[in-house]
Design goal:
Number of helices: 1
Structural class: mainly beta
Helix content: under 10%
Distance between the termini: 27 Å
Radius of gyration: 19 Å
Order of helices and strands: EEEEEEEEEHEEEEEEEEEEEEEEEEEE
Length: 384
């Protein structure tokens, strides 16, 4: 990586080289981590539900208020001098998480903080060849990145309310997308099409002050999964093969840890970043719902954000993993809405005007942003 992602910090953080290590006290945050991120005063949430925008729904043939109930879980990318955010929006049809229809809206900003939104979704369950995978639940949780030649690639969950699957679409302008269907449709590991899978974080790197998709050992590489972090490779960004272990089954690189903030889930966040120290994955950890399994420092069921570093030459190998989250729900809008236990769900990361902008879902209801300015940061709170 051309520009080293470094910061030196003084904090109380427990760090382990593997998931089974016991908690230890440390006075420093390791220099491979990214942060510290701060919530800009008076800015959040940057995207909230809107009951005035309508859209002709191909499934019903009716006009629907497509982003009336919730707007959350965003992906982010930079195009020219503008930050674009793809966010998940839900209408009011259905009750509860996963039982409404999700579509992807597009918002854009020239400062990373104040956004203008398109009036209609840019990706949605349409009358197309993806109906079997996207009707009626829709399109969820985008992670978006860009190639060096300017092709935007978004990985998202196709939700037919039967099996969630990772789908992929490409675009040159972020508004007109070509759907390519499930990423594992042609995999030799045929079980994938019948197994739930979601949350894809493709490897990127910083080149000429722009985050772009980067190959690892000659192939495109992604981390994916929510019940343990897994991997997949591709030659064309469309068709992917999962990484298997010696027994020919899905390999798991990190897993949940009893007594830690990620005791229930380890769900991949925004695109991973290849640096001069390794491959940095930011991920979402869910605290367990059972007290005996959970981290006692946090509310049961809370979603917080962690970091783990993998070997750049062997992206299955963990070098180090934070035992303490670098971001957790603190604001009222992060502990209300659909998920009152508290959620910061990171999905979008943009390098913009020499700063890092981290976009996240707030309690499955709104979109927030935190900013890290490497030129000003000297130390940070390990639990911001």
């Amino acid at each position: 990586m051309k520009k080293r992602l470094l910061f030196y910090a003084v904090a109380i953080a427990a760090i382990s080289a593997c998931g089974d290590a016991t908690k230890e006290e440390s006075t420093t945050v390791p220099n491979w981590t990214l942060g510290g991120f701060e919530r800009p005063a008076g800015i959040n949430p940057v995207i909230s539900p809107d009951s005035t925008t309508t859209f002709l729904d191909p499934m019903s043939g009716n006009m629907v208020r497509w982003e009336e109930n919730d707007t959350f879980n965003p992906g982010a990318v930079v195009k020219d001098d503008t930050v674009f955010v793809l966010y998940r929006a839900e209408d009011k049809y259905g009750i509860g998480i996963g039982f409404r229809t999700s579509r992807l809206g597009l918002a854009y900003s020239t400062d990373g903080l104040h956004f203008t939104r398109d009036k209609t979704p840019v990706l949605f369950p349409d009358d197309d060849n993806q109906k079997a995978y996207e009707w009626p639940g829709g399109i969820e949780d985008p992670r978006v990145a860009v190639t060096e030649d300017g092709t935007f690639v978004v990985f998202y969950t196709q939700w037919n309310r039967d099996v969630p699957r990772l789908g992929v679409a490409t675009s040159k302008d972020l508004r007109n997308w070509t759907k390519h269907g499930p990423i594992f449709a042609k995999s030799t590991y045929s079980k994938m099409m019948h197994m739930p899978h979601k949350s894809a974080s493709i490897v990127t790197t910083l080149k000429n002050d722009k985050l772009v998709i980067e190959k690892v050992n000659g192939k495109y590489w992604m981390y994916w999964g929510e019940h343990g972090v897994k991997g997949a490779t591709s030659d064309n960004l469309i068709d992917w093969e999962p990484v298997l272990d010696n027994q020919g089954e899905l390999a798991t690189f990190i897993d949940v840890r009893k007594g830690y903030f990620d005791s229930a889930l380890t769900e991949c966040g925004p695109p991973a970043i290849k640096t001069d120290q390794g491959i940095l994955l930011l991920y979402n950890g869910k605290n367990h719902d059972e007290k005996e399994q959970a981290d006692p420092r946090f509310t049961l069921g809370t979603y917080s954000a962690g970091q783990v570093l993998f070997d750049a030459n062997d992206p299955t190998k963990v070098i180090q993993r934070l035992d303490t989250p670098f971001k957790r729900p603190m604001e009222d809008f992060e502990k209300s809405g659909q998920y009152v236990d508290g959620t910061v769900f990171i999905q979008g990361l943009a390098y913009y005007k020499s700063k890092w902008f981290l976009y996240y879902g707030c309690a499955d209801s709104k979109v927030g942003v935190s900013v890290y300015d490497p030129s000003k940061a000297t130390n940070f709170d390990p639990l911001p």
